[in-house]
Specification:
seven-stranded mixed sheet
């Protein structure tokens, strides 16, 4: 019923930029927190950047200053603008959202989009 669809991943050279998008759709009353995680091969999934419905933003230390997360509440969409990309940014990036359905909050995940940064 509820789906998160990511787009914008791909292959980019070091120093380049990519913009990821994630749109939530379905029978959603509201969306609370919404953000991005990533997982590289052999590593744990980690929080990259997150937002609240009120606009509060937080970033992982290793991406702060290079990545910018933004949100369009009217479209239930979150974006991740990535610049000055490094090979170590290579990972599958997952969109995550806490959504309210019939007075209950549920956590949903997108299927992920691959970001590959070449040296």
């Amino acid at each position: 019923q509820v789906q998160l669809v990511e787009s914008g991943g791909g292959l980019v050279q070091a120093g380049g930029s990519l913009r990821l998008s994630c749109a939530a759709s379905g029978s959603i009353f509201s969306v609370n927190a919404m953000g991005w995680y990533r997982q590289a091969p052999g590593k744990q999934r980690e929080l990259v950047a997150g937002t609240t419905s009120g606009g509060r933003r937080n970033y992982a230390d290793d991406v702060k200053g290079r990545f910018t997360v933004s949100r369009d509440n009217a479209k239930n969409t979150v974006y991740l603008q990535m610049s000055s990309l490094k090979p170590e940014d290579t990972a599958v990036y997952y969109c995550q959202a806490d959504v309210v359905i019939k007075k209950y909050e549920y956590s949903y995940w997108g299927q992920g989009t691959q970001v590959t940064v070449s040296s």
